[in-house]
Amino acid sequence: MxxxxxxxxxxxxxxxxxxxxxxxxxxxxNLILAVIGCLLGTLIGVLPGxxxxxxxxxxxxxxxxxxLGDASTLILLASVYxxxxxxGSTTSILLNVPGEASSVVTTLDGYQMAKQGRAGxxxxxxxxxxxxxxxxxxxxxxxxxxPLAEITVQFQSPEKFMVVILAFATVSSLAGKSLIxxxxxxxxGVMLATVGADLQTGVxxxxxxxxxxxxxxxxxxxxxxxxxxxxxxxxxxxxxxxEETAFVKAERIWVTFKEFMFSLGAIIRGxxxxxxxxxxxxxxxxxxxxxxxxxxxxxSDRDGTFGKGDIRGxxxxxxxxNAAAGGSLIPLFTLGIPGSGTTAVLLGILISMGIRPGSGNxxxxxxxxxWTLIASMFIxxxxxxxLNFPLVNVFVQILRIPTWFLMPVILVxxxxxxxxxxxxxxDITIMTIFGVIGYFARKMDVPLAPILLGLILGDDLxxxxxxxxxxxxxxxxxxxxxxxxxxxxxxxxxxxxxxxILDLIRGGRIKEEFADSSAEV
Amino acid sequence: xxxxxxxxxKPAGQSDSSSVVSGRNRYTSDRVLxxxxxxxxxxxxxxxxxxxxxxxxTGPVGPxxxxxxxxxxxxxxxxxxxxxxxxxxxxxxxxxxxxxxxVVATSFLFGQVLEPLGFIVASTLLAIIIGSFFRGPIVKxxxxxxxxxIAIAFIFNNWLGLRLPTGLWGGF
Lengths: 521, 172
Prior knowledge:
The structure holds 2 protein chains of 2 kinds. By secondary structure, chain A is mostly helical. Chain A has helices at residues 2-13, 18-25, 28-46, 52-66, 70-95, 106-115, 119-151, 157-174, 179-193, 219-241, 257-279, 285-300, 312-335, 341-352, 362-365, 367-397, 403-422, 426-443, 449-471, 483-496, 498-506, 509-520, and strands at 196-197, 204-205. Chain A has 22 helices and 2 strands. Chain B has 2 domains: 24-83; 94-159, no CATH class.
């Protein structure tokens, strides 16, 4: 039980602990920021075309301009992140259009419920389930995070190198359909990271003689290009091809106590499944949603009501994806391994604040930021629950904004975000180029998150690679030296073949079930 | 929550519109991509010869080492992709391509005119042009775009403390 003592020590007894985090997060300024973040996030989540990654990436440079402290910036951006999750589920239920990959499963029963005039209970159970599971996951993060982070204190350069490799392996094997394309994406990202002056020697690489490129490519600019601009291009294509959807209105958000009790089991099961899937670095919420839906269906679908508007079919995946998001913060905070595009952006932001998870124990090195952030997760979840009940219809009104005005608005805001990073119009050109790359990547099923992660962690990879080899006279076996390194190497291999392993375990049944159910919609 | 790729998924139930190309061209897209990756990888490795290493960069590992390994890996993955290509997506028609090209061109142009014209003028024009590609009625687009640009400029300059380029007109 030593680990439990470690975490309890960090949570309650350290010089700066959870309590101090709450005190910091509950200042007037931070509370206002959390509310603004939740509102903006929900709007972004409701809007087609800008997802959580884009929202956080666009807002980050803008918040830098505000001159907020690091903790306040993190609170604002984290609130935006949670907000997008709530907003994404709303459109899944009302429009049959998932705001993001993790709410795809929600459409199965959620949209059916909405069509039967039960949008209110569907939205309510989604919000309540997300809240309960989200809070549970944050408690899990507090219990498991600190002891895991202790391990990283032993890391030398070879171990740090291997951890980055593990991060690359996880994100590229799980982000897309094809492992090769995932690997190509992550290697491409590493190549982008080498642009600019070499950190150790100052040697200039791949700048085409452009002075402004000597500082390297900024991940925010690349993120906005890859995600926001390419999304506008994709939506334009759909518009030309005439693929659009109509939506159902929710009269008001409510759920009876009976319905809540009926769903409670699904919420708890979904939350647990989600949390443990979130723990696996690189998996993330979309897998969690599918798994928990499949399991819940097998567990409780006795009358064949799943896929026809069963409230438990909304409760389970909605709880699971929120719990997975919380769980995925554990590998992020302890090892620096993000499970998704959004957490990759979050990692980039942490690194730019001088916090490098995986390269030290963040619970010891930056307790102020981490505990304030964790406290703000409790607060953010509560704010969202309170906001969503009265305001969901207001949010949905945003969808009445016609695409022909929404798209220019998204682009203009993206451009401001990009421009404000360096006040340079070259950045707008770079963003546009990556918008085009992103468009083609989407078309060809090349996942975008690994590109971003390769760029964010590329410097770390190279620096630790060179330090390890310098320390060991160019002996490449240094990366397999010692139990930690061998363990990490095994983890890399397992992770690269995890989809095959998972398929073996579940026999491909969930995928089939999903195919069946979506055929009925 | 954690969106693996950030791509907005298609509505459930809508079947995947890709993989409809038949015959010999079924795998062309991925093969072209693989070929491009090989070319980029090779160029990336060769480019290391142009690094100016007169004063630095000796020792077992220098600024060339990782780019060399990474470039070779990238090219090899490209070769694998050529042989293990997936089916091609459905590419757009001329109507799609021309509009996409126009949006991209507008976006490039915006970067060029932002500083000389200033934020308000440049972004109003941008919004009108992009909006019209999405078939927005110009009578509504023009005033909305101008109002939006002015509002944004006001908020950013006065409340958020970001200095947007003023150019011709745009100071508050």
